[in-house]
Every structure is written in C-alpha cells, then in structure tokens.
Amino acid sequence: MTGISVGRLWYPVLTLGYGKRLGVWVQGCRRRCRDCISPDMQPFSRNYVLTAEQILDRIPEHAPVDGLTISGGEPFEQAEGMLELIELFRGRYSEDILVYTGYTIEELHHKESDQMEEILKNIAVLVDGQYAAEKNSGIGLRGSDNQRIHIYKYHERYTGAERQKRDLQCVQLKNRLWMIGIP
Ligand code: SF4
Q1: CA-CA distance, 71 to 84, in Å (whole number)?
Q2: Which of 42, 44, 100, 108 to mutate to test the pocket of ligand 1 (most atoms within 8 A of CB)?
Q3: 181 near 169, Cβ under 8 Å?
Q4: Domain residue spans of the chain
Q5: What is the pLDDT of residues 23-41, one digit of tens each?
Q6: Which CATH entry fits the domain spanning 4-181: 3.30.300, 3.20.20, 3.40.50, 3.30.1150?
Q7: Binding pocket residue ranges, ligand 1, CB within 6 Å
Q8: CB-based burial of residue 8 (10 Å sphere; 0-12 exposed, 13-18 middle, 19+ buried)?
Q9: How far apart are CA 12 and CA 79, in angstroms?
Q10: pTM score of the predicted model
Q11: Which of 5, 30, 74, 182, when mutated, tests ligand 1's pocket best, judged by the most ligand atoms within 8 Å of its CB?
C-alpha cells in the first residue's frame, strides 16, 4: 500500500460533513493561498506517513461512522494513497466521502489522470477552488464564495448545505486546543 503523508487525523469530526466522520488532513500543498487556513499543512514533510489501513485503524472499534472527510494540505497531491484510502473506507463504512481541494474541478479533469477520475467517481462531495479570505461570507461547508460544492451522492444530506450555519468543534490535540471546521 502507498503511504499518505498525514498532517492530522481525528475521529469523530462533527463539523465538516454529515454525522460522525473520520477526518484526514493530508500534509503538503503548493498553492500558497493568501490567508491560508492551514499554513502548517503546506510543507511536504514526511514525518507522519500512514497506509490507508493504519488510518482506518484510528477509528475506535464499533464506533458509528457516517463518512470520511479529506482535507489538507492538498489531497490531490497524494492521489494514489488517497484513492486507496477512499476504496478501503467505502468497502468498510460508507460512500459518504467529502473532499476539499484547492484545485477547481476543471483543473482536476485537465490533469487527465486515471487516479483523479477514479477518485471523482468514488466520492460523494467535492468542494473545489482556492480559498479566498476576501470572499469568505460565512456560508456553510465552503470556505469562500468562489468555491463550489459538487454533489455526486447523498443529495439528501448535502443539498442546501451552503445555507446551513457553520460550526466549530474544539478538541484537545496533545497540549493545545484545535478548532475543527470552517472559521
Ligand atoms: S489550498 Fe488549502 S492548504 Fe493549500 S494553501 Fe490554499 S488554503 Fe492552504
């Protein structure tokens, strides 16, 4: 299995998608958006590399799992490992897989990569586009108004999500607090 360089992992994530989810933040992004909301995820360090199997092992036994949220960093920079994770997760838990990317959907299709297409076929929701702080108007699920929500599955869960109120989940990460969600 291919390893994924992971920035952070959390279960349960309650504020990025429907229900109780596994959250995976991949490490590494080339975009350098102004006002990046996760600057610590930009470096392509390989300090914490896990296989898909090891990532899913972080879910407690018998815990309810409604979906998987993948963010970053830039998930599509690690498309091979990401596809393995998506396939394993779908087989074990759910097809509700929500992915955040700084690429637009057009840019992803333009890459003409089989892995990209396979990922897009197998996820439920893609939130695409670079984060733009000046266009952050507080809409649900997206960071800024230029980003788009593409819903492929679970329309009943995600249609109208941008009209819902944002929430932040405060968790203890080692010796500091971490807010999960869109600020
Ligand atoms: S795409 Fe995300 S992680 Fe990458 S620079 Fe932009 S806000 Fe930061």
Answers
A1: 16
A2: 42
A3: yes
A4: 4-181
A5: 999 999 998 888 888 899 9
A6: 3.20.20
A7: 29, 31-33, 36-38, 41-42, 72-74, 102, 130-131
A8: buried
A9: 24
A10: 0.95
A11: 74
